[in-house]
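INPUT
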Amino acid sequence: MSNASAQMSRSRVFAAYLGDIRYELTKMARTPAFAIPTIIFPAMFYLLFGILAGGGRGNAPFALQALARWSVFGAMAPGLFGFGVSLAFEREQGLLILKQALPMPPGSYLIGRMFNAMVFVCISTLLLLTIAVTMGHVPVTLGQAARILFVDALGVLPFCAIGLFVGSLISGQAAPAIINLIYLPMAFLSGLLFPLPIRILQQIAPVWPSHHLGQLSLAAVGAPAVGTTANHVAALVGVTVLFFVLAMRRLSSRGINLLGPAPTGAVFPLRRALNMAMMGIAIGLIIIGVVGGTAPPAAASTAATSKDATDKEDDSAATDAESSAAPVGVAAPDTTLIADFDNGSDQASYGMGWNAFDDKSRGGNSTTSQRVVAEGAGHSKGALEVSGDVGTAIQYAFVGTSFLPNGKPTPDFSQQGLMNYSSRHTLRFFARGDGQNYTVAISGPELDVIPAMYGFNAGADWQEVIVPLAELGNLDLERVKAISVGTMAPGPFRFQIDDVRIE
Amino acid sequence: MLYVMEDDMSQQSLARLAGAHKRFGAVKALDGLDLAVNRGEMLALLGPNGAGKSTAIALLLGLQRADSGSALLFGEDPQSIDARRRIGVMMQEVNLSPVMHPREMVAQVASYYPTPYAAAEVIKRLSLESIANRPYGKLSGGQKRQVQFGMAIAGRPELLFLDEPSVGLDVHAREVLWRVLRDLVHEGCSIVLTTHYIEEAEALADRVAVVKHGRLVAGGSVDEIRAYVSRKNILCRTTLAREIITGWPEVQELREESGAMNITTHDAEAVLRLLLAADAKVSDIEVRRAGLAEAFAEITSANQADASPGGAHSGKLQ
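OUTPUT
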């Protein structure tokens, strides 16, 4: 017997969904234990590690990467905490049972929370973007900002599913600790926030969903990423489906059916088969994603600058000895010209260079070559052309050409001398190329320190690149070992430089 | 089975359990329970802890499935959302979000129903204006129960399930609750109530069902329950034979307790007259009135199935 009064108009059902979303948002906004870790922590850590520690203005590629990486750290939290911790509590405290008895529209509980997680991630990412633009002077374009937001907002879903599953298993008391035990290690082990120190950790990084979201986020700002978009998306979709199905099964066995009434009788084997099929597909997707997203070790976080840097053990031993307390380099020669390539040679007016370098010694598969070509900037006689293909075998690939102002004819980076450029304030040169973005990297005594970096675009026409040395972070002008120009973006590249001066 | 429901079959029972069995591991929570809630009545479900009251409610709410037998809500599967849009629920142990305000909580639940009350109306009806915009976590236990009650009635339900609604309420709040419950029944709402307070059942319920060991052991109108408790016990020492006493029509039950006789009767005066006339040496006479709680205790402690109040055997409990 049905009663007319029980008929609910579509608009009222829609309003009920909206009401649940609004209720959930209000609740979470009033819960500091949720709002602080999800919004304040990512912003705080980004400010500390991405902006203050990472070098300031002008260090565009590094700053963009840091933004992309820390935004993913922020994207992980709302899903894990919003589903994991609250679900565990509400399950324990009878609220879920009460909700089951109420005519809540099907799935509204999940939709409300999912939307809530997305809103919080957008707030967190917008906050990071604001910090990046205002305090870090990171040159984020509107397109990059929109792409990061998009990646992060959708990227909450696998973490929602993981949270849901964990929340269906554990008690409310244990939930915050356990979610943190998943959240923080997963963020670090994915190599997202800091380079991974151990080779095995680097190799298993693609196991973590945060690795895949991190690569998508890096790609969103045009930073070099490993693996293909399709691989990462496959892994993330797989994780989402797998944990969602597992959580639904678990909750359903406890009499909680968030998607609507539990089926009875003959429907059950069908649903069971469907569940199994979905889990099978999900696991397949994860395998495809993980295998495709394999990232062999990144040897160092820095852009290696030596043409064929050899034994890393030696390097690190030597660089340990050299610290920032290393003596200042020899005084720079009077000439401001480093190289104009007009005599058909790739040698500079002093020091060693220019020399093309790749990442093979660090386990990479990139290739580089260089040659002097005619038709330099301003119709000069020659210019240096560097071309090649950046591979995806390692993280943080960086290839190009480098100049060692006080270099010695040895491949050992630690043996290279330093130059004191403290009287100079600008590095300038002309560049043209295939329209891609390139990076100037200026390295100090230590190989394992992120060099000062400056990004530029090499368009079809010669254009002058002016690097304001005083404004670069991570730069000790008294101790300069190498000046490199190159790229981190996977794929083929070609650029020319001419008339390099430091003045 | 004492509480036969044939007569209800032709009537509109809003919620019905028929031969419901439910087992949790080794524990038999329901053992063939039959129960029906009729339109416009307030049914009090009584029983000791672990008797199966909560399981019965859980089956009617669709929170659990019967192992065998059936549970129907408005003639439908209790999990059907259409059926659920016609009921309101107040549960016993629920911790709601401490940061939300009662007005928001009532409004949220109301939004799930086709023709709910406005949140303000519910707040006013329960005299909750002073706490309507305070965080739920800052309210006293009694105030929280009142808010939960407000959430239960927000959807203008045809059938209201209340699990121990007056636990933790002060006298005034309980009066408000009782008044609103009576008003709701007057407006045509049916109510199923579980309670530990027998006087609450007595004050409110049209009908009482006593559950024990997952079965219905007694049921009837409150008047019938009252009739049951109007029986008195006469204790005395007498030399009369058991057969003589049990032969008197007014005597309903006779037990021997440590040398004394315990006679249960509806008409203590008549039995006393007979007793004094038949045995001049009768001594230590004591007449005890069975209280409501005592009657309940007796019903639920009696093992024999016919501990039901008079009239229950008829099968008609309206």
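end of record. Chain B touches chain A at residues 12, 61-65, 74-77, 79-87, 89, 91, 93-97, 99-100, 104, 107-109, 111-115, 135, 155, 158, 161 (CB under 8 Å).
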